[in-house]
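Bump. Still looking for Nuclease structure tokens.
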Amino acid sequence: MTPDQFKARLDYLHVSQSGFAKLVYVHRNTVSKWATGQAKIPGPVIAYLDLADGVMALTKQVSVGG
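Sorry for the wait, here they are.
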């Protein structure tokens, strides 16, 4: 995942870098480093974002369908 893809995922999920840091229990500077490419985004963080995307998509489907 590139830093731009990471930032796009955060935007899609409507979560700030600071808010995401709280969700995954890291310092906000760590998230900033992921977003700027200064540090590699760990696999578990990518998996967390994939899961969050799936939940968001299901929520939207239920909202539209229900």
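The CA atoms of residues 34 and 42 lie 9 Å apart.

Edit: fixed formatting.
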